[in-house]
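Students often ask why inverse folding is considered easier than folding. One informal answer: many sequences map to the same fold, so there is more than one right answer. In these notes we will look at a single instance of the problem. The structure comes first.
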C-alpha cells in the first residue's frame, strides 16, 4: 500500500502522538509499504522521522484555512495516488480531506487527545471525510462514542508500541549515573524520582509538588526531577520555592534522549489529570523503574495495579505521597514492581500492537462508512 501521514504538530512538540506516528510509519515501511510523512519544517517531528529514514516532506500547515498547504497536499495526492492517509489533528483532516477524497484515498484519524464534551468538530469531519479512527486506548474509544457520537465500527484500538531494547540499561549507565548525580549535587545513595512530562496544566505536576512536600518529611534525602518544558514552568518553580523544596527538586528542561535520566532514577511518577496512553509509562517500565501513575485514561490498560506499578486517584496529593513513600521505603515492593513492569512492557512491542492495524487499513472501510 501507499500510505501518507500528515502531522501538523507544533515545531517544538514531540509527544506521545508524534512518537506513535513515527513508530507506526517506520513499522509499516519495514513491512514493505511505501510510506511518506508530512511535518512542519524544522520541527522535532521532522527530525525524529528522518532519524529512522522515513521519506519526509515539509509543509507549513499554519492553520485550518491554510489554502497553500491544502493545495499542495491535493497536488501531491493527485500525483502519488495514496491508498491511505493518516491525520493526527482536526487541522490535518481539514487540510488533507478534499485532496485525499479526490485521489481515492481512505482517511484515518490517529486520535490521541481526550475530548471535551460536545465535540462538534468530530461530528462534522466524521461525516465528511473520516473512514476510520485509530485510538491508543479503549478509554478513548469510549469517549469518541459517548462524546462525539462516532460509530463504534469505525474505531479501532491500537496501542502505541515500544521497542524495549534501547531502554535496557547498558554498561555505561553506572558511569553516567555517577556523573549525573555529581553534576546535580545528588548523593550516590539518595533516592531519585523522575516526572518526564511537558510542564502544562493537565499533567498534574502541581499536585506532585504538594505530595513531594510530604514525601521529604519522611525521606529527607530524596530528589525529584522534572524532565520537560512548558508554559507552567515558572509557576511550578514558584510553587517549589513556596514549599521550601528548592534543594530537593530539579528542573532538567527538555531532554532529547530521556533514557539516561530514566536509568539514574529509582521511580517514575506520572501524576497526570487527563491522558490517553502515555508511552513514557512503557519506557519507564522497560528501563527498570517502578512506576506510580494516575488512574486515568489508558494508563490502567498499560500497567496492572500492584503488579507492574501503583495507580492513584488523579489530583489526590495525599494518595500520591503515600504511594511514593511505599515504593521508596520498601525495596521488596520496588523490585517486584520493576520485574512486573519489565514483563508488562514486553507485551507492547510493534509486532504485537501493529499487525491488527495493518489488517484494518488493508480490508477497506467499515460497513456504512462513506467512500470517495
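Output (designed amino acids):
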Amino acid at each position: 500500500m501507499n500510505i501518507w501521514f500528515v502531522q501538523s504538530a507544533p515545531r517544538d512538540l514531540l509527544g506521545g502522538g508524534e512518537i506513535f506516528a513515527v513508530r507506526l510509519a517506520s513499522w509499516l515501511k519495514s513491512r514493505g509499504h511505501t510510506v511518506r510523512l508530512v511535518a512542519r519544517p524544522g520541527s522535532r517531528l521532522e527530525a525524529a522521522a528522518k532519524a529512522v529514514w522515513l521519506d519526509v516532506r515539509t509543509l507549513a500547515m499554519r492553520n485550518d484555512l491554510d489554502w497553500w498547504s491544502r493545495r499542495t497536499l491535493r497536488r501531491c495526492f493527485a500525483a502519488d495516488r495514496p491508498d491511505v492517509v493518516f491525520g493526527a489533528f482536526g487541522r490535518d483532516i481539514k487540510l488533507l480531506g478534499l485532496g485525499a477524497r479526490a485521489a481515492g484515498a481512505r482517511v484515518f484519524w490517529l486520535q490521541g487527545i481526550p475530548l471535551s464534551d460536545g465535540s462538534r468538530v468530530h461530528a462534522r469531519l466524521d461525516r465528511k471525510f473520516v473512514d476510520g479512527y485509530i485510538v491508543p486506548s479503549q478509554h478513548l474509544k469510549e469517549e469518541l462514542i459517548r462524546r462525539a457520537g462516532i460509530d463504534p465500527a469505525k474505531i479501532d484500538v491500537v496501542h502505541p508500541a515500544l521497542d524495549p531494547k534501547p531502554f535496557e540499561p547498558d554498561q555505561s549507565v553506572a558511569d553516567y549515573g555517577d556523573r549525573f548525580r555529581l553534576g546535580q549535587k545528588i548523593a550516590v545513595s539518595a533516592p531519585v524520582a523522575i516526572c518526564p512530562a511537558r510542564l502544562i496544566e493537565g499533567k498534574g505536576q502541581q499536585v506532585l509538588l504538594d505530595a513531594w512536600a510530604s514525601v521529604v518529611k519522611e525521606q529527607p534525602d530524596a530528589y525529584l526531577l522534572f524532565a520537560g518544558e512548558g508554559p507552567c514552568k515558572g509557576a511550578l518553580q514558584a510553587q517549589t520555592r513556596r514549599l521550601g523544596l528548592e534543594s530537593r527538586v530539579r528542573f532538567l528542561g527538555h531532554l532529547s534522549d530521556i533514557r539516561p535520566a530514566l536509568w539514574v532514577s529509582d521511580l517514575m511518577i506520572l501524576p497526570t489529570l487527563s491522558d490517553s496512553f502515555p508511552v513514557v509509562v512503557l519506557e519507564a517500565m522497560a528501563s527498570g523503574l517502578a512506576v506510580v501513575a494516575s488512574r486515568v485514561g489508558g494508563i490502567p490498560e498499560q500497567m496492572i495495579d500492584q503488579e507492574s506499578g501503583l495507580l492513584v486517584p488523579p489530583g489526590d496529593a495525599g494518595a500520591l505521597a503515600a504511594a511514593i513513600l511505599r515504593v521508596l521505603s520498601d525495596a521488596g515492593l520496588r523490585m517486584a514492581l520493576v520485574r512486573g513492569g519489565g514483563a508488562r512492557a514486553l507485551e507492547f512491542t510493534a509486532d504485537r500492537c501493529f499487525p491488527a492495524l495493518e489488517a484494518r487499513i488493508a480490508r477497506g472501510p467499515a460497513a456504512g462508512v462513506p467512500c470517495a
